Fold this sequence. Notes:
9 helices, globular, seven-stranded parallel β-sheet, single chain, alpha/beta
Amino acid sequence: MDLNSTLREQARRQRAQADELFGLRGHGVLVVGGGAGIGAATCHHLAAAGARVAVADVELERAESVAAELDGTGTAPIALVADVAQPDAARQLVHDAAAGLGRLDAVVNIVGVAGWGPLLEMDLDQWHLDLERNLTHHVVIATEAARLMIDAETRGSIAMVASVSGLYGAPRHAAYGAAKAGVMSLARSMANEWGPLGIRVNAVAPDIIATPRVVDGFTQRGITDIDAIARADGTPLGRWGQPEEIAGPLLFLVSELSSFITGQTIVVDGGTQAAFPHAGARPFS
């Protein structure tokens, strides 16, 4: 066997192992917010596991760019555009993904935007906007996807991105924190209602992740070493996460590796939640 044949055989075996391990070969997965950051990393992970991915983003150019990057995987990705803060657009996106992929086995919804400011200065219009951008569209997309999965008798899975802001107090972004707490509660409620119908629902709650948008935000404030903040805060791993480190848990949650997990939120925070909160009071440090 020549070198090229050997390499092809190794690649074939690796694909077969991934198929068996993740159980996603040929499955249709909609990634909402797939055009950048965590979403783009998730699309790459899913395609590497053999899934057909619908890359959806509010900007079509970004979705098309990620879909083009996935073309070499042989999984025939598609690019879609929608502003999921608009309920009709969110519903249509789910149907467009199912039609374009030929099937809908899983949904990963990453979309969320934090609005910043003190509660005393927040009006109800801003409150409602933050809930629409961080909670309501999760309800719309998940319920529409569930209906399609139930009609097709699909053993489906849904993974949503929450935040540690929904676990702790969220000063100056209270609406975001409340919405993300709602996402985690939704995962539990949906899991209870839809589990008997063969649909699993889970969430991931990240801490600060060094996406391009986050890094740019810190840079504009003159902060170039964001990991220094993590170290100062006592984060056990001493750094903030990378987009791929959220994509991995999301891949896990929609794969067969998590087939008996539903209604859960995986906290991905570099150990922050496990850390002793009073650094100066540690008696043996």
